[in-house]
């Protein structure tokens, strides 16, 4: 087992990893930028080291500074968390060259599944259902037009690398396709350093359903069932829940088994999420594979009892997955509300600044994953998420009721947060019925 793990991340996920390490008896080193120098979670680390100024490129994305910090502090492993360097195969390779264990997949496995185009090639070989579309990256505009004609409009242009909606363009006819291919390529290049894009069929009323998997270095892979992440805004998840509501259990069982098979076939060790879109007939099509721990992993932990972060650390250290597939059962229902420092009444304008009031809810079945407390200043440099409210109930109705109660207790100020939006959504009749699609929230906000 590792003696000391460096956490190459910040905020709530850094604190989440620290907690898992402490329970495993592992010391932690937490890196931080000058923008995070007063963050209270740094006090929980055995050692904290500054790696640069606020901009991510000079700190959390600076590989040489992170490796230097690991070497100086004698860390024998690095956990990348999510975002930043977590899905960079070159970072995983550099860690290996420096004889520091990367807590995540090997560069080879990440190369197979981290790139959307390559992942689809691999999925086809593993007989995982994928969208009709281009076999690889689009080389020129005429190829894009030809592919769109073959699969039929509407189509969507997507970046081969990265996610979060950047590089995406929905095209309903040839004219919009011709206009948007170059724009998508430029946006992808600016966001990810890779201008590659591909085209696939676009579903008008799709749900976003994903499968949590874990593989180890001994050729084992299991799934931890599914999550529904359909409540989104501009491809950014707002609410996640597990298991997915109103999904045929026989169908989802086959999808989950296929996801685990895909991970196993790629010799993948670590946590991975296989994302699908589900149409109105509950046909599934693979979107991509996220080769890291997900923001929404706690809801899976709540319904299965499996600590995903601790298991990932054990797997990276060479141990076998300490769980058998037959023992992974779904217990109850869990919901996660992402609490962002944003004003949803003003087009989700970021609301950085001093947190003077922080009154977090509690009680049975309520979990708060957050690095924030009263007196914390939310920096403007990074993602606006300041915490996650996770609730569990014996069934979906109980979970919604508990989430509504917890949101009523949750007070944060004077900065604006998405707590009022979540409180409204818990009372929304369509959400209560289950099965909202990925464009529902945008339609609702437009009125």
Numbering strands along the chain, what is their spatial order in the largest sheet?
13-12-9-10-11-14-21-19
The main pleated sheet reads as: 8 strands, antiparallel
* CATH architecture type of the largest domain: 2-Layer Sandwich
Question: Percent of residues in helical segments?
Answer: 25-40%
Structural category is alpha+beta
Distance between the termini: 54 Å
Query: Quick one: CATH superfamily of the largest domain?
Result: ATP-grasp fold, B domain
Q: Any idea what the radius of gyration is? A: 21 Å
The CATH class of the largest domain is identified as Alpha Beta
Q: pLDDT average, as an integer?
A: 95
The CATH topology of the largest domain corresponds to: D-amino Acid Aminotransferase, Chain A, domain 1
Enumerate the spans where pLDDT stays under 50 for 5 or more consecutive residues: none
Number of strands: 22
Q: What's the tally of helices?
A: 14
Shape: globular
Instruction: Work out the count of structural domains.
Output: 3
Strand content: 25-35%
Compact summary:
This protein has 447 residues and is α+β, with helices and mostly antiparallel strands. It has helices at 11-23, 63-72, 89-97, 107-113, 116-125, 141-151, 174-192, 249-265, 297-304, 308-316, 396-409, 419-426, 429-433, 440-446; strands at 4-7, 27-33, 47-52, 77-79, 101-102, 155-159, 169-171, 197-201, 207-215, 221-233, 236-242, 270-278, 284-290, 333-340, 342-343, 349-350, 353-354, 357-359, 366-370, 377-378, 385-393, 411-413. It is 33% helix and 26% strand.
């Amino acid at each position: 087992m590792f003696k000391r793990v460096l956490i190459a991340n910040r905020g709530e996920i850094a604190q989440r990893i620290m907690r898992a390490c402490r329970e495993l008896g592992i010391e932690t080193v937490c890196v931080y930028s000058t923008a995070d120098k007063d963050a209270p979670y740094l006090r929980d680390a055995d050692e904290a080291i500054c790696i640069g100024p606020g901009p991510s490129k000079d700190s959390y994305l600076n590989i040489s500074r992170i490796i230097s910090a690991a070497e100086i502090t004698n860390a024998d492993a690095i956990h990348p968390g999510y975002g930043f360097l977590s899905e960079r195969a070159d970072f995983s390779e550099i860690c290996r060259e420096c004889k520091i264990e990367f807590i995540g997949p090997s560069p080879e496995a990440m190369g197979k599944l981290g790139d959307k185009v390559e992942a689809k090639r691999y999925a086809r070989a593993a007989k995982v259902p994928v969208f009709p579309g281009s076999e690889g990256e689009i080389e020129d505009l005429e190829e894009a037009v030809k592919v769109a004609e073959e699969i039929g409009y509407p189509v969507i242009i997507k970046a081969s690398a990265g996610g979060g909606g950047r590089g995406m363009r929905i095209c309903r006819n040839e004219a919009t396709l011709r206009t948007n291919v170059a724009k998508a390529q430029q946006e992808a290049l600016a966001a990810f350093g890779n201008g590659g894009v591909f085209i696939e069929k676009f579903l008008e009323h799709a749900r976003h359903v994903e499968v949590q998997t874990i593989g180890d270095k001994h050729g084992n892979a299991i799934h931890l069932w599914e999550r529904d992440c359909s409540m989104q805004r501009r491809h950014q998840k707002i609410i996640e829940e597990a298991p997915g509501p109103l999904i045929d259990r026989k169908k989802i069982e086959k999808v989950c088994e296929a996801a685990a098979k895909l991970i196993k076939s790629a010799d993948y060790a670590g946590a991975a999420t296989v994302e699908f879109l589900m149409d109105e007939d509950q046909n599934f099509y693979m979107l991509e594979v996220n080769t890291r721990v997900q923001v929404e992993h706690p809801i899976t932990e709540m319904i299965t009892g499996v600590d995903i972060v601790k298991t990932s650390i054990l797997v990276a250290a060479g141990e076998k997955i300490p769980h058998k597939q037959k023992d992974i059962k779904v217990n109850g229902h869990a919901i996660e509300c992402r609490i962002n420092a944003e004003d949803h009444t003003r087009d989700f304008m970021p609301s950085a600044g001093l947190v003077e009031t922080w009154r977090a809810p509690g009680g049975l079945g309520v979990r708060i994953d957050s690095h924030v407390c009263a007196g914390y200043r939310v920096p403007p440099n990074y993602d606006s998420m300041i915490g996650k409210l996770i609730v569990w109930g014996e069934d979906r109705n109980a979970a919604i009721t508990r989430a509504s109660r917890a949101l009523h207790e949750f007070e944060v100020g004077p900065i604006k947060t998405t707590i009022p939006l979540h409180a409204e959504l818990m009372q929304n009749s369509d959400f209560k019925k289950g099965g909202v699609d990925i464009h529902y929230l945008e339609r609702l906000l437009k009125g």
